[in-house]
């Protein structure tokens, strides 16, 4: 139908823009994805994907008739009915989201009065839509509707999250634009929740804040369990069986990271502070997480004493398995804390992107967990890569200088690891 054959311009070829473009093309729309980074566009035109995301490459390849990539603004806007803003909103010095890329896209739409809707998918502070509305009016797009359509996909499963969402949130003061954008999702079986722009903006921030709250809560309970001899996995498993609470996002670990939770929770906290309101619960959620990332170092010191000159293996560097993303990964805090203690950091990760900054500057990267473990004084499971279950831990215990292991993700069996001779510590388990 006509509803499944819209012409869409997507701005920003990052995680959200790429997934949105591929999925809209999969749904039958004609999509032109525009980015200002020549390297990203070159990679896409060469048939590759600049990020690691399962299923994305295949989806792009099978929709290549309906999916174009360009550096050229006019090519993106020509004939477009809907423009999606998918640029990133990184933290600024103050902790507020830096919206400069959003404004630059909005300004670039000047003259494109044929657009029927401008959709912001980027995560933005509440009130951004009102400012965008004013900017669009100023740019002559008075007849173009504004829509906030926040994104709830998680990295590593973004394609399937987009195609099978729990809900589609559409915030708009313009019923026609809201209906048009809702219609773009035809073929997806999910409730469409329509509301005003500010509320839609807040849904995204509140959702991420509550998910982060559950994890910080689980981490705090895990510490209480360590201090009392209870087993956090038993406790939280049983807590999650209450249907009012549910089992998800209660897994204790080494702290939450990634491109969203740290940035979004801090931005929400700062926007509250900007109005003179101190959000106590949200602040505590952030504090608990900052402490959680540092507890690993103390646990190693409890066993090894002074860490100066020690060889410490970090197993897993990406902020979670299934991604190459290092943004706000707990491994970065851990590596630089260990370096500050004078330890030498050895690391392994199957995918993580190696940047110029910490932790890579002070660490040596190894191609396999075995190589990182050989001769190490201690090791930390930082990211629960499934490969780590298959490590020959009996061999590792013999090959390490000292078989000390902090399992920051409760990935391994404590009984078995101790049988193998490890001084084994985990999160919230005796
Ligand atoms: C998160 C949200 O889950 C998505 O719904 C949201 O759309 C996205 O942010 C976003 O704002 O774009 P993501 O950052 O990809 O997605 O990662 P998650 O899978 O949610 O994990 C976040 C962090 O929490 C990871 O460091 C993970 O290890 C940690 N975590 C997660 C735990 O420590 N325990 C848990 O039980 C779950």
UniProtKB/TrEMBL annotation:
PROSITE patterns: PROKAR_LIPOPROTEIN. SUPFAM superfamilies: 6-phosphogluconate dehydrogenase C-terminal domain-like, NAD(P)-binding Rossmann-fold domains, UDP-glucose/GDP-mannose dehydrogenase C-terminal domain. Pathway: Nucleotide-sugar biosynthesis; UDP-alpha-D-glucuronate biosynthesis; UDP-alpha-D-glucuronate from UDP-alpha-D-glucose: step 1/1. It is an enzyme of class 1 (oxidoreductase). GO terms for molecular function: oxidoreductase activity. Residues 313-414 form the UDP-glucose/GDP-mannose dehydrogenase C-terminal domain. Keywords: NAD, Oxidoreductase. The keyword Oxidoreductase applies. It catalyses: UDP-alpha-D-glucose + 2 NAD(+) + H2O = UDP-alpha-D-glucuronate + 2 NADH + 3 H(+). It comes from the Bacteria. Its EC number is 1.1.1.22. It holds the Pfam family UDPG_MGDP_dh_N. Signal peptide: none annotated. Belongs to the UDP-glucose/GDP-mannose dehydrogenase family. NCBIfam families: NDP-sugDHase (TIGR03026). This is UDP-glucose 6-dehydrogenase.
